Records
---
Amino acid sequence: MPGVPRLASWSTVPWCDGCSRFLNPNTLRTDGTCPQCESLVADPTKARDDTPVKAPWHFKLLVLVTVVYLGWRLIQMIGWLIT
C-alpha cells in the first residue's frame, strides 16, 4: 500500500502482504512461505536465532530467596517436631 511505512530491515517479524497480517516465525513453512496464501514471506536461507535465552537476574534472585525461605521453614518445622 502506498504511503504505509514498512518495517525496518532489522525487524524479525515476518509480514505477509497477501494476508495483511504478521506471522509467527514458527508458523511459516520451511521454505519461508505463508501457510495460507503460499507467498514468500521470509528468506529461508537466513539462520534462525536458536540460541537459548538466559534467565534474567531477578528470576534467579527470586528462586534463591524462595529456596532460602523454604529452607528456613523446614528448619522451623523440624524444631517444632522435636519440641
---
Amino acid sequence: MSVEKVGIYYEKQRVKPWLVRWYGENNARGKPRRYSKSFKRKRDAFAFQSDKQAELNSGAQRDDIKITLEELCTKFLESRKHSLRKASLDRYELAISQLKEYFGSTCQIRRIRRQDAEMFIATREIIHPDHKRKSKDLSAGARNRYLSCSNTIFRTAVDWEYIKKNPFAGIPKTKSVPKAWHFITPEEFKTVLLTTSELRVQALYGTMYGTGLRYGEAINLLWNGRDIDFERGRINIEKRPAAQSIPPFLVKDYEKRSIPMPQWLQDILLKLHSEAPEGCPFAFVSPQRLPRLIKKWQKLLKSSNSNKWENHMVANNVLRNFRAACRRIGIKVDTSLTLHCLRKSYAQNLADNGTPISTLKSLMGHSDIQTTSKFYLQSTDANEQRACQALDRIMEVSETDTGMTLDPSKHKKSEKLNLPNSRSNKRLH
C-alpha cells in the first residue's frame, strides 16, 4: 500500500471484517506509523476510507497527536500572554486549574468527549472561601465564563490540529438574570453632591453620572488637554502607554470614544482644574495618594510584572466612600449599589429621554447593542406612569371622536348601547 493511499481490506475471520488502513509520519526508527479502523459493514468502511483520503489529501495531520491537557494549556497561555489583559489571563488560569483538577494534567485531550465537557461545566462550584461559608451557588455568569474559556482553549486545539472536534462547542450557556441595581434619580444624585464636601470627589461622581464612564476610565483621566477637552466640551477615552512615573491605561475592548459633557459637569471640572495642585497629572487623585500610586507602579515595573497593573489600582476606598455618602442621604436598598450604578443611571436617564439606542451604545462604549438593552434599560416608576397617562390620552381622543363616554355616572340606567352590527340585534330564524 502506498504511504499516501488509504487502503481498504476484507478479512473474513474478524468480527468486523472490513479494515481501513493508512500510514502516518515516520517514527523514531524512520519507519512510517501504521493505523487501521475496522467496520462491520462494507459501506461504512468505504465511506470512512473516502473521508480519510480527502482529509489527508487536504494536508491534515496524518498522525493522532497525543497531547496532554497540561501541554495544551501551557502552550495556550504562552501564545496569549501578550495579547490578553491581566483580568482575561486570570480567568483563563482559573478555568485551566479547574480543568486540570477535574480531568487530570496528564489526560490526553483527544479522550475528552462532549459528555465529559458537559459534566465539567455542570459540576463547577464556588471556590472562594468567603463565598463557600455563605453557602452561595455558582452564578450563571461564572458558569458561563468557565464554558467560554474552556471552549476557546479547545477551539485553539482544533485550529492547531491537535484534535478534530471541540468537545465544548455547542454547549448552551446558562441563562442569566441581570442583577438588580439601584437607579440613582437626578434628585438623589443632587443630594449626594450637596452632602459631599470634597470638590475632587464631587467631580468624580459627576463625571460618571454625567458621561457614563466606567470607574477605571474616570479615575485615570489626566489634566493633559486631551482627556478632558474644555474647548470642545468633551471627554476622550483612549489607550495610554506606560511611562516611568505614570502607569498605563487600557480601554476595554480597545475601543476609544468621545463623550460630550453637560454644562453643569463642565462647571464642576473647570473649578476643580483651577484648584488642581501642581505636579499632580491625575484629575481625581489627591496629592497624598500620588506618591503611593507611583511607588506601586514602579515596583511592578522593576519586577517585570507591569502586565499585572489594572485601571482601578489608581485609587482605593472609593466604593466605601460612595456607599457612605448614599447612606447619609437615606438611600437604603436591597439591590446592588456600586459606583457602576452611576454609569448605569446615566444610560437610564438618556433612555428615558428618548435617546436612540444606537447612540446610547456608542456613548457607553458597548461592543454589542444587546448589552445596552438587556442590562442597562430597566423600567422605572416614572416611565410606567407616563405609559398610563398615554393610554388615558388615547381614550380621551376616542371619546371625543365617537361621542361615547366610559364614565358610568353619565350613563342612564335604561340606556343600552346600540350596536348595529352586533349579533344580539339580529333575529334568529
---
Amino acid sequence: MTAKGVTGQLELLENRVRIKRRTSIYALITQGFRGDKNILIKEISSIGFKKAGTLNGYIELVIEGREPKKGLLEAALDEYTVTFKARHQSAFEKIKEAIEEKMASMKHGETGA
C-alpha cells in the first residue's frame, strides 16, 4: 500500500513503513537530500495526523522515545513526517488505518492475548 504526498510517499510493507522522499522543490527545502527511511512497525508508538484544508495536512510516525511535533511547520521539517494536499488525503487516511491495524496486531501478538 502506498500514499504519495508533497514531501514524499509512505509505503506499507510487511513489518515496516518506508518513507521515500520526493525531489520536488518543496521537498528539497523542507527535507534536504534525505534518502529513504525504513521504520519497523514495532518502533512506532503513535501516528499524528492533521487533515488538509487551506494548508497541507500531514502524517507523522511517532517513534518510541520521541515527542510528537507541534504544528505543520515543525512537522514539515521532521524526517518521520510526510505532508500532503487535500487531494491526497484519502490515501493517507487509508494507510494510517492500515498501519494502526498492523500496530495493534503486533501488540496483541506480543502480549500473547
---
Amino acid sequence: MQQDHTIAFIFSSFDDAQVARQALIDSNKIDADRIRVDVREDEAGPTEGNFVIGNKRHDGKQSGDYDEQYANPRIDGSVTLFVSCASAEEAHEMRSALSARGAVDLADRTPS
C-alpha cells in the first residue's frame, strides 16, 4: 500500500495561490497535474461573520451590542493549494517552497 504524501497550504487570495502554483511548475520539480487549487468561496465572496447566531464572547456571555455580537471577521483559508507528492522527501521540498511564499501549512492549523 502506497503512503499518501499530499500536502495542503492555505493562501489569503486566489492570485497568491496561482502564483505559487506556477512557481512550482516552473521549477520543473513537479508536474502541473499533481497540483490543485481549491477555492471555498462563491459569488458572494468569502465567509464573513456569523449572522445566524452571533459571535460568543470569550467569557461565554451572550451580551453586548449588535456590532459586538455580529462582528465581521473574515474567515481566512478560503484558498487551498494541494500538492500530491511522490515521497516524504518531495513533500518536504514542496513545503519549504510554499512556506517561502507566505502560505500556511494546513497541518499547522489542525490538531495532530
